[in-house]
What we know:
The protein is an alpha/beta fold. A hairpin with a 3-residue loop joins strand 24 (463-473) and strand 25. Helix 9 (264-274) packs across helix 10 (283-295). The site of adenosine monophosphate has 21 residues, from strand 14, strand 20 and strand 21. Adenosine monophosphate (AMP) is lined by residues 192-193, 239, 309-312, 331-336, 340, 363, 419-421, 433, 436, 525.
Amino acid sequence: MTRVEAQMRSTMQDVPLSIASIVRYGTTVHGSSEVVTSTGDGVRRATFADVGRRAAQLANALRGLGVTGDQRVGTFMWNNQEHLEAYLAVPAMGAVLHTLNVRLFPDQLAYIIDHAEDVVVLADGSALPLLAKVLAQCPSVRHVVVNGAADISVLDGLDLLVHAWEDLIADQPDTFDWVEVDEHDAAAMCYTSGTTGNPKGVAYSHRSIYLHSMQVCMGDGFTLNARDTVLVVVPMFHAMAWGLPYAAMMVGTSMVMPDRFLTPEPLAQLIESQRPTIAGAVPTIWTALLAHLDAQPSDVSSLRNVVVGGSACPPALMKAFEERHGLHIIHAWGMTETSPLGSVCQLPRGVDGEEAWPYRITQGRLTCAVQHRLVGPDGSFVPHDGTSVGELQVRGPWVTASYYHDDDPEKFHDGWLRTGDVGSISADGFLTLTDRSKDVIKSGGEWISSVELENALMAHPAVAEASVVGVPDERWGERPLASVVVREGETVDVEQLRAFLAERVASWQLPERWAFIDEVPKTSVGKFDKKVLRKRYADGALAVQTMAGPGGSG
Ligand code: AMP
């Protein structure tokens, strides 16, 4: 794009986009909207107005503990009311919210607390023992604020002060003069789940969160509005819960928070009793819920949109939910680095019924603010024709330009983020991802999409889950290994699965190595952990059945 010299300036006011303005608006104009938190055997409720008052008390208390400027305040919490209060209070007082993944390995957790230099950590009592294990390695942390019942003796011997959340805020004023910020200042940070090496920090700005929240609410986003209630299953410690909390505050969408009760039974009960209209979670949550609903039907009819992202949503899962439970799944793609919303699969005009499926199984349309291009292995641009494949690169106002205090030149090129995701884009902007670049199976000079094989396998009625990884092969370089979890009460053998696949993929792509496993290992954010499967194979820890390969290699 070219710029005209001495361009005429606009007459518009320069008002910063800030979390403070979302807090002020949401907690007053939408003061009667609610946040409902699961307690395991029931729920507790608060209005947005209550949450606003308590957020102000928390901000006053944090100031009292000495939190100033852009200091980092960590949260080690599940999805609940108090976590929402921290989401509002910390950035709106000018500090930086750092959400810590409660499922990270201790070493990585210690690394990110130390790297971000968190001065205070707000922690759920139930998660305290995990946090306690690493705090000795985190000298920056001066205070831990504990939410709910806890055994605080696990913190004995540590050089820091421990406070009970309710005691700490009890006598604090319930108003706070929220801070005017430069909209480009950091508001929150999140570390990527880090498949290899140390996790990388992404610092979101007030502006990026504000703009992203608007996109989440839009009709081609997740369509949030004041008449909706959103079930926030995607953890608030993973990519800011897809931006749902701030978006909901912006437009008055009530929120239902499952806290730590994430197994299918309590989730199904929560849906039946609280009647959310929108929900968001990774495919593994929905796969488990589907099995539960099939065995024990409950009323999930309130849900009009179920957003699934974080990893590829198997088309079979979408179809099963639609046909058996009347639930409409919307596929979305994003990354920690993209705030995370990149694309959402809302249908084009006039497309309905069976015609919709070719669209619905894609990752959807990249949104207007997320500029995109596909780059081939030789660095040339790949046409957006729906079939040519390349690495997806993106740029935009809510896409990170770098990692926090951690150069990674490989990830950033020429002002663009290299996503590491490989796929095609149609002329009308629908993205179809075939793989992560590191998961594509390179067999004899041809590429096999592990995701395509997984989706085809998971369409088999006896298959609960399936993960496919490339393993070394003398003749072909790499060949697919399929690890399959059989649905309870079903039986199936390799020959049957190969015959099923043969109708869906080219014969040279058929895996010859197979393992039946109890569960696909998952990462800390619920994705298939392919690195663990590769290692199990390399260590000889998988019982592998091997058939003849393409051209007779075995
Ligand atoms: P994270 O930063 O942990 O959210 O991981 C981001 C990565 O998850 C992306 O780069 C993709 O590889 C993967 N991902 C997210 N959403 C999808 C999706 N709908 N389909 C396939 N992969 C996805």
